[in-house]
Automatic annotation (TrEMBL):
Keywords: Cytoplasm, Methyltransferase, rRNA processing, S-adenosyl-L-methionine, Transferase. This is Ribosomal RNA small subunit methyltransferase E. Its main location: cytoplasm. GO terms for biological process: methylation. It comes from Streptomyces anulatus (Streptomyces chrysomallus). InterPro entries: Alpha/beta_knot_MTases, PUA-like_sf, RsmE, RsmE_MTase_dom, RsmE_PUA-like, tRNA_m1G_MTases_N. Specifically methylates the N3 position of the uracil ring of uridine 1498 (m3U1498) in 16S rRNA. Acts on the fully assembled 30S ribosomal subunit. It catalyses: uridine(1498) in 16S rRNA + S-adenosyl-L-methionine = N(3)-methyluridine(1498) in 16S rRNA + S-adenosyl-L-homocysteine + H(+). Coiled coil: none annotated. PANTHER family: 16S RRNA (URACIL(1498)-N(3))-METHYLTRANSFERASE, RIBOSOMAL RNA SMALL SUBUNIT METHYLTRANSFERASE E. Its EC number is 2.1.1.193. It holds the Pfam family PUA_4. The lineage of its organism: Bacteria, Bacillati, Actinomycetota, Actinomycetes, Kitasatosporales.
């Protein structure tokens, strides 16, 4: 297995580092790491360093040595962003978790017209914090060193502006009466950015489709079956990673 990943606020400045707090507790009390085991420290922004456990003390103190050099993972190309309409219940965290494990680069929560869930005030701030925490934990679990960005929730107008600036913009739309192209056959860029919109349980409204079309986003479909909003983004990300060569 690859070495477990732990997040630090700043990369170590020297060859030895003491991991404390929640990350240290997870390493010592949950993972039960022992001297001699390999670990990876990262800031989640692409910087990382390999080290070896020198000592595990108490319940939350792990001393790591051998951190002789800091590496930087290049930003992937093309960059894949999924605009995720807000699902009901905890399906939002499920979508964030699986998209992160798959390899998405950015996630944008979208308050679509037909969303049952509403992010307002303190409830919205709490939900966004959960999404970001989920992305961080899923990034660690999947051994990533560059975690996906989770943006502030956007309105349809803001999403349209994001789509207009992308090198490839699309909307997953499973309407039998609507002219949509298979995402599997779409012409994709080799660099730049890809932005894909995943609608809510009730679907993307005609007004939203019009706004996105004016921004240059065409409708696309994944296959014959209709996926739930919490799984469509993951399936689309996997397809795009394979087609762009990032899963090569």
């Amino acid at each position: 297995m690859t070495a477990p990943v732990f997040v630090v606020e700043r990369m170590p400045a020297g060859p030895e580092f003491v991991l404390e707090g929640p990350e240290g507790r997870h390493a010592v009390s949950v993972k039960r790491l022992q001297p001699g085991e390999d670990v990876v420290l990262t800031d989640g922004l692409g910087h990382w360093a390999e080290g070896v456990v020198r000592a595990a003390e108490g319940k939350d103190r792990l001393t790591v040595t051998g951190l002789d050099s800091i590496h930087e993972e290049p930003a992937p190309a093309p960059r894949i962003t999924v605009v995720q309409a807000l699902p009901k219940g905890d399906r939002g965290e499920v979508a964030v978790e699986t998209m992160t494990e798959t390899g998405v680069d950015a996630i944008v929560p979208w308050q679509a017209a037909r969303c049952i869930t509403q992010w307002k005030g303190e409830r919205g701030a709490k939900a966004l914090s959960k999404w970001r925490s989920t992305a961080r934990e899923a990034g660690k679990q999947s051994r990533r060193v560059r975690f996906p960005e989770v943006a502030e929730a956007m309105t349809t107008k803001q999403v349209a502006a994001l789509l207009a600036a992308a090198d490839f913009a699309g909307v997953l739309h499973e309407d039998r009466d609507h002219d949509s192209t298979p995402l599997a056959t779409a012409e994709l860029p080799v660099t730049g950015s890809i932005v894909l919109v995943v609608g809510p349980e009730g679907g993307v409204s005609p007004q939203e489709l019009t706004a996105f079309a004016e921004a240059g986003a065409r409708p696309y479909r994944l296959g014959r079956s209709v996926l739930r909003t919490s799984t469509a983004g993951t399936a689309a990300t996997a397809l795009l990673l394979g087609r762009t060569g990032r899963w090569g």
